[in-house]
TrEMBL record, chain A:
Gene3D superfamilies: Tetratricopeptide repeat domain. Residues 86-195 form the EMC2 TPR-like domain. It is found in: Endoplasmic reticulum membrane. Belongs to the EMC2 family. It holds the Pfam family TPR_EMC2. This is ER membrane protein complex subunit 2. PROSITE patterns: TPR. Component of the ER membrane protein complex (EMC).
Automatic annotation (TrEMBL), chain B:
Component of the ER membrane protein complex (EMC). EMC8 and EMC9 are mutually exclusive subunits of the EMC complex. It holds the Pfam family UPF0172. This is ER membrane protein complex subunit 9. GO terms for cellular component: EMC complex. It comes from Hucho hucho (huchen).
Amino acid sequence: VNVLIIVFTEMRDKLRKWREDNHRNSEQIVDVGEELINEHASKLGDDIWIIYEQVMIAALDCSRDDLAWTCLQELKKQFPGSQRVKRLAGMRLEALEKYEDASKQYDSILQDDPTNTAARKRKISILKAQGKSAEAIRELNEYLEQFVGDQEAWHELSELYINEHDYGKAAFCLEELMMTNPHNHLYCEQYAEVKYTQGGLENLELSRKYFAQALKLNNGNMRALFGLYMSASHIAASPKVNATVKKANVKYAAWATNQINRAYQVTKTNQLPVEELLLRSS
Amino acid sequence: MSWRRWLAMGEVELSCLAYVKMYLHACLFPRCSVNGLLLSSSPAGGAVCVTDCVPLLHTHLPLAPITQLALTQVDVWCAQTQQRIVGYYQANACVSDSSPTPCALKIADKIAEQCNNAVLLMIDGGKMSPDYRVPPIVMYERKDTRWTLKDKHTIMLRQWEETRDIASQLLDSGDHSLLVDFDSHLDDITRDWTNQKLNAKIAELASPANGNV
């Protein structure tokens, strides 16, 4: 009996951790969550409601409409008229590709509560799912005028712009994110990648600076390390730079090469020597 | 007469290994667009035989640095293993749209510079369920600087049913998570983007001992 209790608490704690970390490991959540709900519902107390919500969303991700439906019904019974549950019903309609109905659902939430950000964001997700990128971008821009602090929205917008090859605007979004999250190495690195893609000497130099910054914040960021190597090499090879700049960038590239080689040596993988890359990119 | 002799110019053969890894790559990241390179261990000239593939990215496909890096590394690896880059594949996140994106065309163009009968392969997300009777792929070939749809009849997949079953088996067993793309390699450089482990598993399932020819 004790073993069963341990198993039960382990499962419940796993679900909580995944919730807190906002993991989208939907198959695992469905596995663990379904068992928990079916076998141990009585032991969960009030936790059960948030677990129903978590499992329902994961079930939608795995095309388990049967499970999603069950969870939704329980939540509807317990919280009749809840906006939060209404949003879940909308998500289910999205999963079934009933986009018109889903949109109506979110509109009805917004009628009662025009500041409901979740409903607005779901509507934008529908546009994205339908491939309506230009509209999604427009709506998201409007949303951000009102909710300028929404990090997730800024990042989503940067992704949409990248997919549309609008690198200037993607860079702007990432600048916002770097301002409000100065210690986030991923934003620095993504910004550097966008600048590198835009090309031209000025952008390359900016990209090198931000790859370096990302490394300062996290020296294990391999993308930043490779990015530093590549941007510095390209700058050094450019006919437009003076001898001083060239020399400095040759040094940066050499340092990066060294770091890359060290990283690969430590892992003992038979990686190709970076000198090969040097030959190729020049 | 060998199979290869049957293939005429303009035909493309896709090996089990290449197909299965591409398919699993798309399955591993269902919410992302994914891409990769198609390789051949056959000599140039004549029909294109895609014998392997290298899965590349599942994030930020249009951005340059990691794509350039990956292309260079795969190029060097190919030189060492007597393979050539002969094409490019992509699966779009948006399942209803299997047309090549600008970045797909750009990379395919680059490959075509080195390989004049390069192929561009798009995975049709809407047709990927196991009960589909034909491979969920659409191929493009370069005709006068433009990529045009290739005649389905010139795309050969030997033993399609066995190949399809191998892919399904690996999905069911969860082994598709063994697949490493270049993005994943950069997240953890101990992971092998040449996928030796997965290749071995696929070879095992494809071997005559398992009832496959």
